[in-house]
Amino acid sequence: MNIIFLGPPGAGKGTQSKRLEAQYGIAQISTGDMLRAEVKADSAIGREAKALMDAGKLVPDAIIVSMLESRIQKPDCAKGFILDGFPRTVAQAEALDGMLKRLGRKIDVVLMLQVDEDALAERIAGRFSCAKCGASYNDVSNPLKVENTCDHCGSHDFVRRADDNRDTVASRLTAYRNETLPLLPYYEDRVTVAYINGMAPIEEVSAQIDAAMSEVEQITQK
Ligand code: AP5
Q1: Each residue of 190-218: pLDDT tens digit?
Q2: Do residues 22 and 16 lie in contact, with contact meaning Cβ atoms separated by under 8 Å?
Q3: Is 138 a pocket residue for ligand 1 (Cβ < 6 Å)?
Q4: Ligand 1: does its nearest atom lie under 6 Å from the Cβ of 10?
């Protein structure tokens, strides 16, 4: 199963794709995480990407497409993958179509997470994650069960993203509206697009996604 997650910054793409990765045994590919790893490693890509990410702007298509092309050919993607944060422009979607065609693969479903813009800034401001295992939390909607202790690995170390501030969120939303939203009509013409109400609590969003995935599985098995 090959899945694309679309939705604005803070919609819950990462939260839901990590869950689907575990449920379906397919690889979550977050271009944001890949870029943050490059920034941390102070690589040439990381140095070019950092200023753009800090400003809430998109990283050039050519960099992202070549990163993605090598990633989807890794063994852990053989059973399928979940694209979280890619494609983000029509040019990236066209490049993806070309590479999937060459590999004899296709996208099975686009999951579109819909969230009111007013809710996004608050979600992003409250987000933090475990520095050791990467589990994602939220001060308001998804807090730790035990204070200062990761529910998953017990670590006491947590991090917040450099681009999770109100000014950068405004730029990220502008980039989303102008460059990523045009992907909806692009995919509606080509593949099943399932619209998910991302305003619901996390467990309810998960249930909507599971229902959409069951429908897609029935269609693909026919
Ligand atoms: P990226 O890392 O992809 O960030 P994003 O798209 O802005 O998305 P986020 O990770 O902020 O949000 P999310 O939807 O994953 O939400 P999450 O699940 O964490 O990209 C960062 C930057 O990298 C970009 O700005 C760009 O510069 C660059 N980049 C990346 N890919 C690129 C590409 N393809 N092309 C060019 N540039 C690229 O949830 C958010 C919070 O809400 C969490 O705290 C969570 O616990 C909480 N939450 C989740 N679901 C719910 C719910 N249902 N109710 C309440 N709270 C919830």
Answers
A1: 999 999 999 999 999 999 999 999 999 88
A2: no
A3: yes
A4: yes
